[in-house]
Amino acid sequence: MQDFLGQVGTLYLYENDLKRSYYYRKGASAVSAFDEAEIPVLSAGIEACREQKEDDFVVTMGESRFRGHRMPTSHGPLCILRIIGTSGQGLAEIGITGALKSILMHPRLNNGGLVVICGQPGEGKTTTATSMLVDRANLFGGQTITLEDPAEVDIDLETGPGRIVQRDLSGDRCFADAIRDSLRAYPAGTTTTMLIGEVRDPETALLALSSAADGRLIVLTMHAQCPIACIRRLLALASGAGNKDLARELLASGIRVLWHQSLKFKKDGTRELSVNALEDTSAVVGAIKLMAQSDSLEQLATEMRQQQHKRDVKAPLDYRKNALDRA
């Protein structure tokens, strides 16, 4: 079973119609059908899905873990199982090195702020976020709390200078309540980090922005097609819980990194990571503040291209003078 599961990227399992089930191999764009030797895997997967009470869940088969989602179809319930990591890896282990790794590991993030990791579903956002947390906890120490629905990768550190506590919010716990509860669980006088697994509602978005502006490192993941769309969505959500001016001021004050990633197919059928990153230079903060007069974020797109050029030629970025400065 494990030899087969090691090749699987995503399983599509019909609970009431085994013959319709199929899967995609890791990094492949073509569908694969189950053969007779793989029927035990198919049966085990469907049985694991039937045992789940929630529509979003994590299941383990053999040595592999999958994030699952159940949806109704014209042929009965369909369970989609996407392979996820079994334990926390560092950034280098998932292929993030050099200048890109330096963005997520910069010491100035210890002073707090907002790191947004965005992309389309299935593009590895959670993997990048948890790898960042593991590396930062091992290097800088401090206390990290994650809020996830469900918790995908086991990064509950028990050794080293830092600790990571994972909270699984599967069920009826809302993210906003969990954020407020977790803010009371940090020790005084140490580096504090929070991962918000996904921002889905106005209250969570506003709490994330305000917590980042208060000097805590907030790492959150969001679905977005591009970096500019991510900023628009985050501001729109946060504005729904307060007002647009407040959301803009909090974002300008707290933003440290906007990281958009995608997995691009290569000619050999494998996929490689593509990243667009935007850091909080003076130009970025100014562009967010100017949104009071204009809804256009084209200046941020221009700044993103200029920052990438500077990284390519190893030129320093013009960060805001103090990482704790308010915009």
TrEMBL record:
<protein>
    <submittedName>
        <fullName>Type II/IV secretion system protein</fullName>
    </submittedName>
</protein>
<dbReference type="Pfam" id="PF00437">
    <property type="entry name" value="T2SSE"/>
</dbReference>
<feature type="domain" description="Bacterial type II secretion system protein E">
    <location>
        <begin position="59"/>
        <end position="261"/>
    </location>
</feature>
<dbReference type="GO" id="GO:0016887">
    <property type="term" value="F:ATP hydrolysis activity"/>
</dbReference>
<keyword id="KW-0067">ATP-binding</keyword>
<dbReference type="InterPro" id="IPR001482">
    <property type="entry name" value="T2SS/T4SS_dom"/>
</dbReference>
<keyword id="KW-0547">Nucleotide-binding</keyword>
<comment type="similarity">
    <text>Belongs to the GSP E family.</text>
</comment>
<dbReference type="GO" id="GO:0005524">
    <property type="term" value="F:ATP binding"/>
</dbReference>
<dbReference type="InterPro" id="IPR027417">
    <property type="entry name" value="P-loop_NTPase"/>
</dbReference>
<dbReference type="GO" id="GO:0005886">
    <property type="term" value="C:plasma membrane"/>
</dbReference>
